[in-house]
Design goal:
By secondary structure, the protein is of the alpha+beta class. It contains five helices and twelve strands.
């Protein structure tokens, strides 16, 4: 300890200089939006590069689990294709323009940083502006909804996880077509809460909760979770429903970022209605 103190005292001018530089940078960033944005992008680049390097190292040890998830995703896609083929009219065949009429596009990404033990949890992905990623894009995993993009740098993006007090997603009980609001009230990272479902409908444990498609961010019908507990207080007109997330948010690895090609048009139309 004595040698450490002697070393600090010997180089006290250097440490004082570093401290003053840090204070100056903080003050400059707080007083100017431009400097703050530059500093934010720089720190995102440094932390993103570090997380990306570590992610590359750990990915080798997760190959078996990643292959299993890939197989499950392929099986799910095959089930969807089979269902669509069986439900189609074999007497007529329509060809649609999938380039100009495609509403949602998907970009694959890798999770390089994630937290689930805080009240406000965020996820960092290895895709950013250069890959066409923007704020307010949906993020899903092969199992279900993950969160929403809230900040983007050149090569990385921050996602507000479902496990965040500010996260609110429009959800639907698929069997009943009843809409509500999905939130996370803290505590168990595997359990969320669905509000605003009227008390006159009959809900069953195990009912599937999916995205409603009303937010212009998430496509309709993506799995969010499964009902586990249904509560209602005396005199209330709406249920408090606890459900288990379909995606394991603590073991995320590969995700998809979704862009709604018509979101700006939809939001502009909504603003016109509100202004009128």
């Amino acid at each position: 300890m004595r040698h450490i103190l002697a070393f600090i005292w010997k180089h006290n001018f250097f440490f004082l200089f570093v401290l003053l530089e840090v204070v100056a940078i903080i003050l400059m960033a707080n007083r100017s939006f431009y400097q703050r944005s530059v500093l934010s992008n720089a720190t995102d680049y440094v932390t993103g590069s570090a997380y990306s390097t570590w992610s590359g190292i750990t990915s080798y040890f997760n190959l078996k689990r990643d292959n299993q998830l890939l197989a499950e995703e392929n099986a799910r896609l095959h089930r969807i294709l089979t269902r669509e083929q069986l439900s189609s009219d074999t007497l007529t065949h329509m060809v649609e323009d999938t380039v100009f009429n495609l509403q949602y596009t998907y970009v694959d990404a890798v999770v390089i940083s994630n937290s689930t033990n805080r009240r406000d949890n965020y996820i960092m992905l290895n895709k950013g502006i250069r890959q066409g990623i923007e704020r307010d894009m949906a993020v899903i995993s092969p199992a279900g909804v993950v969160g929403t993009v809230v900040s983007v740098s050149e090569n990385f993006s921050w996602v507000m996880s479902l496990l965040n007090k500010h996260s609110k997603i429009s959800g639907r009980i698929q069997r009943l077509n009843q809409m509500g609001t999905v939130v996370w009230e803290g505590g168990n990272p595997a359990v969320g809460t669905l509000h605003d479902i009227p008390a006159h409908v009959k809900i069953n444990k195990g009912d599937t909760i999916t995205t409603s498609g009303f937010s212009h961010i998430f496509p309709e019908g993506i799995s969010i979770g499964y009902v586990e507990e249904i509560n209602i207080k005396s005199g209330d007109h709406f249920y408090t429903i606890h459900f288990r997330f379909s995606a394991d948010l603590n073991s995320l690895r590969h995700v998809y970022i979704i862009k709604n090609q018509f979101r700006e048009e939809q939001e502009e139309l909504r603003k016109n209605i509100i202004n009128d």
